[in-house]
């Protein structure tokens, strides 16, 4: 089973994200993230044995999840042959970085192998994007916006009838 850990968003935040995605749609074509799939990845486990899921839950359970204010304040793209990946980026956030580090350490403590490239918090808006008109990155973002996050979820990623589907398997909510 393919697993990852992520922060999911409430309906209002998704509306904000979708407004940004809408401006991207007007400027290009590509494979746009479905509203139900919008999320912020904290750790990617990849393919794991089903019996190892419990270990992932335990790593999450042992992680302190503080309530955090997340600010979406920049947008950008990763250049790719055949179409770019466009994303929405989060402003510097110490609590989020600490959370991601602690979670990663607990997962590694349980034997999961993680990529050790630097955490750059972003939400993928679309992949394989080819623009048909110029689109400036700051123009795409519009006015920065924020959201409160207090929950980290263990997510299952699978193809269901050809559709990329994410399902929450477990969640830990921080106390206010
Ligand atoms: P697909 O791969 O089918 O296009 P996806 O990338 O959204 O869809 P997954 O590959 O299951 O789905 O990835 C789940 C999440 O983990 C996504 O946010 C993805 O960007 C992230 N992710 C995938 N691979 C890695 C990786 N090697 N390192 C870090 N994060 C990753
Ligand atoms: Mg992928």
From TrEMBL:
GO terms for molecular function: 2',3'-cyclic-nucleotide 3'-phosphodiesterase activity; ligase activity; RNA 2',3'-cyclic 3'-phosphodiesterase activity. Pfam families: 2_5_RNA_ligase2 (PF13563). Keywords: Hydrolase, Ligase. InterPro entries: Cyclic_Pdiesterase, RNA_CPDase. The active site is at 39 (proton donor), 122 (proton acceptor). Its EC number is 3.1.4.58. A motif (HXTX 1) lies at residues 39-42. This is RNA 2',3'-cyclic phosphodiesterase. It comes from Syntrophobotulus glycolicus (strain DSM 8271 / FlGlyR).
